[in-house]
Design goal:
The protein is mainly α. The chain contains 1 helix and no strands. The chain is rod-shaped and about 85 Å long.
């Protein structure tokens, strides 16, 4: 009998995963540090020298 409606409780939805605040701060700090290192490396090794007296 396929025309019978079965009343079932809805399955509980899992809450979305959240990153702990401490880990989030560590990831932000690491991203900023990596960005600064990349900018330093660019100006140290790749960018042409501007010819300004030092």
């Amino acid at each position: 009998m396929n025309n019978v409606i079965k009343f079932q409780r809805p399955k509980p939805q899992k809450p979305p995963r959240q990153v702990p605040p401490g880990l989030r701060k560590a990831l932000v700090a690491a991203a900023i540090l990596i960005g600064l290192v990349l900018v330093w490396a660019y100006f140290q090794f790749i960018a042409p020298s501007s010819g300004l007296p030092t």
